[in-house]
Description:
By secondary structure, the chain is of the alpha+beta class.
Amino acid sequence: MVDIIEKQQFSVIGKMGEGLAIEGTKWIPPLWQEANSNFAEISNLAKLDAEGNITGIWGAMSDVDEKFERWKEEGKYLAGCEVTDDAIVPNGWTKWVIPAFKYVVTKCTQDSYQNIFNHMIANYLSQSNYQIVGAIQEFYNPKDNTGELYLYFPVEKI
């Protein structure tokens, strides 16, 4: 299932790394380990919903110039949580303000990630007359314990 949503600018504080796109499975998991093991340092900054739950955990991506363009040979990745835009960044953490985009959103698991990602790029977006206009983002719903995540493809109509 695919949703199309408009998401306003939002901020994420997390642990950032940079590396070769084809080696993402080597350098991204340690970022999550570091972010998760030090989460207490930023937990008070996490944006909360009406029920007091964290609104979102993000695997945010950007090009190496941090213009939020798609990865080429290399990219940057920020493993973190959504925070208020005015949150002050603690030492050792990085804050990104991700611009507003229209997103095509689809759910996947770690096992289906690559297949769904490739299908969206190769088939769905072009057949739906969309082009990608920025870096794809990963969203992890804190209320969801199924191991699923959502891929956010920033798009505009062709």
